[in-house]
Design goal:
322 residues; mainly alpha; two-stranded antiparallel ribbon; 14 helices; 47% helix
Length: 322
Amino acid sequence: MADRGVTDWLLESDPALRWQVERDLVRLPREAWSATRERVATEGFGARLLALQDPDGQWAGGAFFPAGFDFEGPEAQAGQPWTATTWSLNSLREWGLDPAALGDTAARLDASSRWEYDDLPYWGGEVDCCINSWTLSNGLWLGADVDGIVDWFLAHRLPDGGWNCEWVNGSTRSSFASTLNALKGLLDYEKVTGDTGRVRDARRGGEEYLLSRGLYRRLSTGERFAPWAVHFAYPFRAFYSVLNAADYFRAASLHDGTPPDGRMADAIEKIRAARRPDDTWVQERRHAGRVWFEVDVAAGEPSKWLTFYATRVLEWWDARAA
């Protein structure tokens, strides 16, 4: 278990984080962490974000961008805004909100929300792999009909095994971020539906794409594909890091009942090396863009969220030899 001092610090958190600490690090009985999880709908981050939902089921009046967003203006140059419907649903789902708290949101979005790309219907997805993955996960969570998105992923997998959001611009090579985000949606599909046969080969192929590259190295040269791949920030959102990837592989390993893949070893040591002497991890960077409210610390400060994720990953990895 994590050092008791750090654990106490982590437990002094919003219910969105606290219940996960109770379950995965302290290992409290289900009834204990479930009671904390129920508070997400009525306290803290979860309750605040629920209160910001529009009557038509959206947030900020848009599917991926706020209504009226000026794509040519200065805010567009500052970064993706994180307030619209997809980002808000992602947060609530990742925080463990009971979907019942959202009532008929799935039906309201079906009736009212359209993608900024080609005015496509919300639950049908669009052309971006990452957007489609989040829509798949959110739809499964809320009980929407997102079956067609599964077929879309199977049809748009690239020859090297993964996915790339730039396929629409002609890219034929997968990307780390697009592949990781796609994998998360496919894993959620298996977890929710129990249908392992439909997507298992595609998921395995995407995992192989990342594992064969050690989670952060170019296959051609062995060099790091980007400097930020080994620097950590929360919320993860669309961004790739070895911590974000390792957390996915932990979830996949537990779902599949398989041990950690040894090809992750170097990436795991990058995570371990970022741990400070007090057993915390620092928020190394922030992703620019409009937010409803802050859920983690400024860059340079110890992050409870990153400390939780990194500790959980290392415990899973280190347990393989136990």
